[in-house]
Fold this sequence. Notes:
The protein has helices at 4-23, 31-38, 71-79, 82-90, 98-101, 104-109, 111-120, 153-192, 211-219, 235-252, 307-314, 318-328, 333-340, 344-358, 363-371, and strands spanning 43-49, 55-60, 96-97, 124-131, 137-144, 195-200, 206-209, 223-226, 229-232, 262-267, 270-280, 293-299. With 380 residues, it is of the alpha+beta class. The strands form 3 sheets. Strands 2-1-5-4-3 form a 5-stranded antiparallel β-sheet, with helices on both faces. A 5-stranded antiparallel β-sheet has the order 7-6-12-11-10. The protein has a two-stranded antiparallel ribbon with strand order 8-9. Helix 1 runs antiparallel to helix 2 (31-38), helix 1 (4-23) runs parallel beside helix 8 (153-192) and helix 12 (318-328) crosses helix 14.
Amino acid sequence: MLSQEVLEPRLSGLIAHLYDAAVDDSLWAGTATRIAETLGSTSTVLKLHGDNARVNLLECTDNLMVSEREQAWADDWHRKDLWVERSVAYGMQRIITDEDLVPPEEQARSGFYQEWLRHLDIHHMLGAVFPAADGAIGVLGIHRPQGAGAYTNHERKQAALVLPHLQRALRLGQRFAAVSQSHAAALQALDRLDTGVLMVDGTGRVIQASSMAERLLRENAELAVIRGRLALRPPALHDKLLALVRGAMDTARGKIAKLGAALSVPRPHRMPLALEVAPLRPSACAFGEQRPCVLVFIRDPEAPIAVERLRELLGLTRTEASVAAFLGRGASLENIAANMSIGLATVRSHLKRILAKTGTHRQAEAVALLARSVSTVSNH
């Protein structure tokens, strides 16, 4: 057993590591090994036992890993973990050892000991079970071989010090994971929109940009980011943008600002880009004031419409979907005929079938439907 002088700094370091790993899950790998080493053991497992005998192995030392062909056998023993079953009956959040749970005579005839634990070279156990999220049971199991000796009262106390910090770190990690998932979903949703979205400050400095916004910036000379700030060409149009951004920023700060948030950005020989700004009010946070910001939305009315998605959505043929895509972008029947190298009468014939399949009665209705369908969602 490690002396108290060596163990105490290691214990403090382990507790600090648990909270660091809760914030940064890349640090989670190796946590089981660190627990084992801190408590003078050879292996550690952290897992969740859920409903329907589901077991989620969160982290374990390398010596508890089994080969792929043994995985089903290992999963079965994890579900039938005798120590977990007995620990739940013994009491949640109570530090226990194998001696509290299984008498020596039962160990000698138990398949759990003679098959599973013998395979892993485990005999002595120190740990606890505790309530976890979604009704699951959290499991901390720390082990060593039979020859290493039983766990002492001092080691029980050390594990008792670690357990509440482990529980809190797991809860924090799960909450951070949920927030991270929501954040990732929001970013993916923005990237799938056919509208570019930028978050800027009161001076127009770009804080974040969606994939579509970056694409529109690349493909349109009227838009630019100069020294990190969103800019429009010509300068007079840029001045209008800054006025809109300042007004939205005032609103985000809680001031009463003059209404007006839309701007048309002309393009030579093309339909203008539509630009809109909106305030992003800061949410309350106990860890520091969040900055108010402005959201800038940019939409290209001539953005491509996904032909294959139109086919799936409306049951169109490939040619009908191509015609429909041109219609959704505002093209005239004559332009469609020229672009597709087909006759105007053929385009009109396709239009009739598109109207029938979409349940619309006029070309304008079909255009409105196509321009607002999910086919306008970005593939990027």
